[in-house]
Amino acid sequence: MKNKRNKDRINADIPTIVGGNIRKFREARGLTREQLAEAVDLDTGYLGMCERGERQLGLNKTLEIIKYFGLAPNDILPIATAANEEGKKALICEINALLENAPNNKLLAIKCIIETIDDM
User: Fold this and answer.
1) Is the separation of the CB atoms in 51 and 19 below 8 Å?
2) What is the CATH number that goes with domain 2-118?
3) CB 100 within 8 A of CB 110
4) For the whole prediction, is pTM greater than 0.85?
5) Among 11, 27, 79, 83, which residue's CB has the most CB atoms within a 10 Å radius?
6) What angle do CA 53, 65, 34 make, to 5 degrees?
7) Under a CB-based contact definition with an 8 Å cutoff, are residues 53 and 21 in contact?
8) pLDDT digits (tens, 9 = 90+) for 70-91
9) In terms of Cα–Cα distance, which of 86, 26, 93 is closest to 57?
């Protein structure tokens, strides 16, 4: 049960982490919210809500912002990194465990995400 609570907490934090990272990179580049919203075709108010973690951007818009800033996905997205081979193996085992019971539509979506990230 503790693992589920941690997972729920992490999932709840994702919009706040992603939004905060977008704001950080936007401000570091001296862009206004209006300038970024126009560049990626978003409503300024909606972008503000996303930056505050009140709303969650879709994956396509998040990737569009990552490309616009010329960043790597892990600069914006809370992606775990494996510092060594053992950490990498543990991460792969954790991912495999999550995928085992996933329905086909989610597996296809995950495949698309991985292909998109590989193309960056």
Assistant:
1) yes
2) 1.10.260.40
3) no
4) no
5) 27
6) 75
7) no
8) 998 888 887 655 456 666 777 7
9) 26
